[in-house]
Specification:
single chain, Immunoglobulin-like, six-stranded antiparallel sheet, 23% strand, Ig-like_fold, TIM Barrel
Length: 707
Amino acid sequence: MEENKIISPLSSIHMIPMDVIDGFKVRPGMYEINGAVAIPCGVNFTVHSFGATSCELLLFKRMEEEPYAVLRFPENYKIGKVYSMIVFGLKIEEFEYAYRLDGPYNPQKGLLFDKDKCLLDIYAKAVTGQSVWGMEKKETVCYKARVVKDDFDWRNNGRPLIPMADLIIYEMHIRGLTYHKSSGVKYPGTFEGLREKIPYLKELGINAVELMPIFEFDEMSDYREVDGKPLINYWGYNTVSFFAPNTSYAGKVEYNREGTELKELIKELNDNGIECFLDVVFNHTAEGNEQGPFFSFKGFDNNIYYMLTPEGYYYNFSGCGNTLNCNHPIVQQMILECLRYWVTAYHIDGFRFDLASILGRNEDGSPMSKPPLLQSLAFDPILGNVKLIAEAWDAGGLYQVGSFPAWNRWAEWNGKYRDDMRNFLKGDYGMADIAAQRITGSRDLYLPEFRGTNASVNFLTCHDGFTLWDLYSYNMKHNEANGWDNTDGSDDNRSWNCGVEGETEDKEILALRRRMIKNAAAVLMLSRGTPMFLAGDEFGNTQYGNNNAYCQDNETSWLNWDMLEKNRDIYDFFKYMIQFRKKHVIVRKFSGRCSLGFPEIHVMEPEENLKVLRIVYAGRNAQDGINDKDDIVCLAINVFWEEQEFLLPGLVPGMEWFVAADTGLKYLADGIPRSEEDMPEVACGRMRMMPRSLCVFVVKEVREFRM
């Protein structure tokens, strides 16, 4: 009946067809909305190009390579440089799409328009052609996009909003975390596999995961074989589409609901008090240089999206063939819209920017003092609560650790912390003073009045380099399996094999390696700044000396969860030190003046011929905003190969020092106490430390006053 007729909400604003193209009813679209978006009457397609002279929309049936419809945008559907069209009656489940653009071809000027090239929408929310991990895309097959339903129910999801000082970041590779058969998950190597590991992450105590690239990438872009073993672009630092999640990381097919499994993962992480950060790669794309593929950016505006030499070749500050022209207004807009999309649609809590110094280069490659992109991200309202973390260097030699343009908003991977602390912990001479600087917040790099107190992300290991086990098992990199005659990867590892290169059955050497790993874990957790470590370090994961496993989709890179039981003592120590950091606020930040006369941070002057570094933190143990009581922690590190004796600071009567951790196993048989009551008391304050060991002490009130 007429009264039951359903009227489209858009009919009241005259959303009616105006033309017919290739049998489809169309009208000019919504020019301000980039990409393809479903609306009640059909789909809105918007795309822009400064150099194109015409644009065609190609519609494909799923899994087909020839379009069933080609809709050329009429001239009156173009405003400025933007093409926009609403196509009525389209059902998003029934098509995939791409574009073809025509325009001038002049490579020396960076113009590469080709009316025969099928182009992936730069703003695509889902990409076809890469859905099965390890399946090489045929050259004749073009990338296409799908329209995604954005109706995920977050069910009042509350974001943790954890302050930087309170974060403990766990860097991981989605596939590598759970693909090994020992992981015990139902959907190995996927977002769902990580979701199954959330109880483990909670038990460990970390409260932020940093996911290596999960944007759609082409793992087969550099496929080759070495000694009969396939090598691929496993890490994923070669983006195909910045707005689309990698569909091969989904455990199940998600046609037109791509990203649902990722959203479910993020929601459950957040519900368990764990933030989710993305490692984003805005410094280059998978299109490479002049010999690279041509599937998106090159065809829309090659001379805008990429930094080009005066001859039209690609600058390569990324080391990967091309460099995104990040401070061009069009590219700035794309990056800003991208990050906003991931924050609003996926509830992402933070971003780590790969080779972030590139983001501060001008169009000619020169560094800028106030890069507009970095400033825009720092002050964007939608990004106002997310963490912005820079890898403050690039492959072109620009190194900005301590000087990255920040506006009190950006944090940095502190590469100097990694390098200096590696040197110190393996016993290099003359490193105590600089180690004290790094442990107490690198204030020589990050002056609090200019950078605040949350600028330093402290790390000893990350995906790029040795694992923590390998750091004390190898003097040299062993990347022969990568196929480059061991020439790839860094030679500056600052590692020590403890006496034997690689695997050994020597019990003394194995015990020393365990001790060195625990020393590193304790120092990391007792350093001012935000600690970060690589997944698997907490149970002695190894890459067999490979410090550049970017191409190793095999046991070299997959976490072997059997090592968790084999190295349970390492895991227990990591877990204990994480909880210790959480319990003692004074380690992380200023929390009120200690009433016992100790300053906030005190690096003790060395006694004569003493080789023990001692750092004392003091303040009020403020939990949940309540100044509970005085708290004093002393970190003592002996990196020398002989025992050392030293004095702990004197205390007022009724207070004594207790041993909270001991990697030398002199005072605690297991290195950590079973409970707080099991901490041994240090009655006289003079201690002897085992070689290459570390102790942590806390002050507690004794029940009986002793004369």
